[in-house]
Amino acid sequence: MNQQLAGYAPTPVAARMENHGRAMLKVAMASGHDLYARTGSVVAYEGFVQYEPNPPAVRQIASSWVTGEGAPIMKCAGDGLLYLADYGADVVVINLDNDALSVNGTNLLAFDAHLQWGVEKVKGMAKFAGQGLWNVQIAGTGWVALTSRGTPIVVDCGRGDDETYVDPDALVAWSPALKVKGKRSFKASSLIGRGSGEAYQMAFSGQGIVVVQPSEDSTDRLRVRG
């Protein structure tokens, strides 16, 4: 191999999921350990890996999850190494240990198929967003990979009594145990939100974390049509 490229060669497998660089996910595939991944996210693979787009289990759980407002999912099975990416976005790998995470659909890259998951309505948000806001909740023990438009910050909401406010367009994920409510500000000089006039924020309180990316997507990434 050209010595100038040697530093980019595959590294030995150290875990089920791990980063290969900032913007690529490496998954060690094995028979009986299937994976759900965002459709179209595979950039390379080694070995024998099969794909099933929009499998029945996904259609049953997320029947209202539509293209353009969610992240279509495929099932991956087999033996080998699988490499996933999302248009150069940063990849964040999380190993859940009997824990749960609520994730924006478009920030969900891959997760172990044995984990419990479903599309859920965000409580307390309906009066601010018409039919309400929706997220994908994942629970259990296993691996999850998220994407972030830039290096994210993880805010610990349990450090004090104050609420944590986040622009919905910059929100990646949060602990489901947190209390969530919406807040509107009618000041043109509002600190959160790029638009002038009315600004809309999500307020989090309780024990848990919130993952925020340094980028605001102009699309309504939380919504799923019912």
Automatic annotation (TrEMBL):
Top-level taxon in the UniProt lineage: Bacteria
Stretches of the chain forming a coiled coil according to its record: none
PANTHER family attached to this UniProt entry: ALTERED INHERITANCE OF MITOCHONDRIA PROTEIN 24, MITOCHONDRIAL
Stated name of the protein: AIM24 family protein
Organism: Streptomyces solincola
Organism lineage string: Bacteria, Bacillati, Actinomycetota, Actinomycetes, Kitasatosporales
